[in-house]
């Protein structure tokens, strides 16, 4: 064995410095739910990339809610699997039965370890049913967060206490404050069940939830919100909370580069100020009727399928595509391009 000498020691130190300087960990984790211990994390996977970001791999995730246990739901699952998502985001309301067994059958082929779910009103029909889903997805509470590559995900619950002062409220606000100071995170995606905004349909938007959280999403630069409960697809332009008339959110027109001219059925948004809200209640249950298209919606329609979101372009672009179960065609596509330096632009100086 070669003895350590001064030259060897210097070489080892140089190698260690290089490793620390040019490699940074991307950690996938779930926060502990104690609002007094947000740093209590469960580390599941560590990957290393260069600090200049040249090795941030593309990755995709799929999302849908309101499934049921029918052939349409099975088609959604099969089409999801074909896109090979690294994560599958559930937006609530799964089996619509007294247990979850049929939904497990419908989603056969989707690795449970990839599932990151929010819970809908139908999961709360009994404690036993809710526990089945929480055990299956290895969750202790209905609200949590985690990082995957340069994306921060937050799962919220519209079915438990969310008002100011609640445990969930404190968790969400502290979590967003923390992630906005994290230079490794370029995207924030939030998901939950009942939507804030919707076109005329069977259900209305959850106004109390909207009035507590939309301005917070805006303050902390949440990029994309995924929702269910309404059994159709709707996707907004970037929206700003309207304090004077909360039911009528504002659209920042400068964020829409194509000025309404959709080439190849796409919308392109560059460094948008505001949050895009998508309702993806299209997993498989029967549709809810849709009224006239709302001014804040870029797209709305009734088809079963799912939303695929891909982070690409060295982590600087987010591409959303709605895959219809009808010949797996793309019925909606949107792109957000963002310079990482603008992430904290709207934060207060204090």
Keywords:
single chain, 350 residues, alpha/beta, Purple Acid Phosphatase, chain A, domain 2, seven-stranded mixed sheet, 28% strand, globular, disordered C terminus
Q: How many alpha or pi helices? A: 6
Strand content is 25-35%
Q: How many strands in all?
A: 18
Compute the average pLDDT. 83
Topology order in helix (H) and strand (E) letters: HEEEHEHEHEEHEHEEEEEEEEEE
| CATH domain fold name | Purple Acid Phosphatase, chain A, domain 2
Radius of gyration: 21 Å
Major sheet attributes = 7 strands, mixed
* CATH architecture identity: 4-Layer Sandwich
Q: What overall form do the CA principal axes indicate? A: globular
Terminal CA distance: 57 Å
Helix content: 10-25%
Count of all domains: 1
CATH superfamily: Metallo-dependent phosphatases
CATH class: Alpha Beta
Detail the poorly predicted runs.
Answer: 1-53, 341-350
Question: Your description of this structure?
Answer:
This protein is α/β, with parallel strands linked by helices. It is built from six helices and 18 strands. The strands form four sheets. Strands 5-4-3-16-17-18-13 form a seven-stranded mixed sheet. Strand 6 and strand 7 form a beta hairpin. The relative contact order is 0.15. The chain has one domain (about 5-340): Purple Acid Phosphatase, chain A, domain 2 (4-Layer Sandwich), CATH 3.60.21.
